[in-house]
Design goal:
Number of helices: 6
Strand content: 35-45%
Helix content: 10-25%
Oligomer: single chain
Distance between the termini: 31 Å
């Protein structure tokens, strides 16, 4: 934990902060109430200003850099040199045991950039009965509030805490951008490259942070390049796999609007049952649907109805559970990110190699009483907390943490910046089953 300043120094920092923060034009003067009820959730767009227009191809294929909502972050104010090196003032942390091996710690800080509010889950997977898993909607292309995801029957019993997960296609399909594997349901979605930095649990129950790409093969056509599984879009030139877990066909939305040089092939029972140059929408997927773009479409065009086709997919390293973020914050105890100017609400997950504990942190933001954090600040905080590796998860209005209260119910412990709970694509679930 960070060192504290005396109260007088902390008060001085806060006073100067209000001046510098005001100069940057940071919005917001009030703290809205937060509803934990799923009925208060927004639509899958997750915005308060109405439904955004269809996202352009560039965003679909590169993804957001900070948050799924795409809102511009507050700019970190320029700090006078006299104050730049001072440690923050900090309130005494409040700690509560959520379950054996699961602890919630909350505290506030203030430095020359402004105030911040933190909530930390410390999870010890070595404690009998404690586990972490992927929490997602029944359909990969579906969204729900975090309480709904954590309380769903398919999330399994014993949920004591959770946090939001991967970035997602907030303006269109609602699907997560990266890797997802559920202990019970197996591999749900993934990409061969481009969005594979992930938190995972291996077969021995050990947590890890690193690259977890999708691997896939077609036995009869080893040259086929499979790039995606149940993703919001197929990589240009590649072939994407869509299964019943995706839901219904999404037409040209998964080709980023591309209508020429595309093809879909439906495989059922190990045989090609349909091949078309036109993509359908709203049809239930009964089998394995292959969608190609450019060279990928050309490769699929060589297949004929009735041909034998064995399609397999897995995640590299064979983890039991996995979920992606967008950037590794810390690797081997070293900060890996460089952005120290844009502040957002943030969610991060890290691993303490010395203790084996998993550290899940949320920082409230877009509030006068909590400014959020830059990527560099988030990484530095994770190191201070003991993380040797850490990963940035979705932030902005998606940043949400829940824990089980004394009444046995899950409650929100932070303040989501939208003022209500956003519908998200997935999350990380903490379970305790004695």
């Amino acid at each position: 934990m960070r060192a504290r300043l005396p109260l007088t120094a902390g008060a001085l920092v806060c006073a100067l902060t209000l001046l510098t923060t005001g100069a940057t034009g940071a919005p917001g003067t009030s703290t809205p109430s937060i509803s934990a009820s799923p009925s208060a959730a927004t639509s899958k767009t997750g915005t308060s200003g109405g439904t955004p227009s269809r996202r352009p191809d560039l965003r679909a294929e590169r993804g957001p850099q900070h948050t799924s909502d795409g809102q511009p972050g507050w700019r970190a104010p320029v700090v006078p040199r006299l104050l730049a090196g001072l440690p923050p003032s900090r309130t005494d942390p409040t700690r509560s045991v959520v379950a054996p091996g699961v602890t919630l710690t909350r505290w506030d800080e203030a430095d020359a950039r402004g105030p911040q509010r933190f909530s930390l889950l410390t999870v010890d997977p070595s404690v009998p009965g404690v586990s972490l898993d992927y929490a997602g909607a029944r359909r990969v292309s579906g969204t729900a509030t975090l309480p709904t995801l954590l309380s769903a029957a398919y999330s399994g019993p014993g949920t004591v805490a959770g946090v939001n997960g991967d970035f997602f296609d907030i303006g269109d399909t609602g699907a997560p951008l990266g890797t997802g594997r559920d202990v019970e349901r197996g591999v749900l979605h993934g990409r061969a490259s481009g969005w594979t930095s992930s938190f995972s649990i291996d077969k021995q129950g050990r947590p890890d942070i690193g690259e977890v790409p999708l691997r896939a093969s077609v036995k009869q056509r080893p040259g086929m390049r499979i790039t995606n599984l149940n993703s919001p879009f197929v990589e240009p030139g590649g072939i994407g796999i869509y299964t019943a877990a995706w839901g219904t066909t999404s037409g040209y939305r998964v080709t980023s609007g591309q209508r020429k040089q595309v093809r879909m092939v439906l495989v059922r029972g190990g045989k090609v049952v349909r091949t078309r140059a036109r993509l359908t929408s709203g049809t239930k997927i009964n089998g394995v649907l292959l969608v190609g773009r450019g060279p990928g479409a050309k490769a699929l065009a060589q297949l004929r109805k009735g041909a034998r086709l064995d399609v397999k997919w897995w995640l590299q390293g064979g983890p039991r559970m996995a979920i992606s973020g967008n950037k590794v914050l810390v690797r081997d105890g070293v900060v890996e990110v460089v952005d120290d100017r844009v502040m957002h609400p943030r969610t991060a997950i890290g691993v303490d190699r010395d203790t084996g504990e998993v550290l899940v942190l949320v920082v409230d933001g877009r509030k006068t009483w909590s400014r959020g954090a830059t990527m560099v600040e988030l990484a530095a905080t994770m190191i201070d907390l003991g993380a040797d590796e850490a990963l940035n998860l979705d932030g902005g209005g998606s940043t949400t943490m829940l824990t089980r209260g004394g009444d046995g119910r899950l409650g929100v412990v932070n303040t989501p910046s939208d003022g209500h709970l956003r519908q998200v694509a997935n999350g990380i679930q903490v379970r305790y089953r004695p």
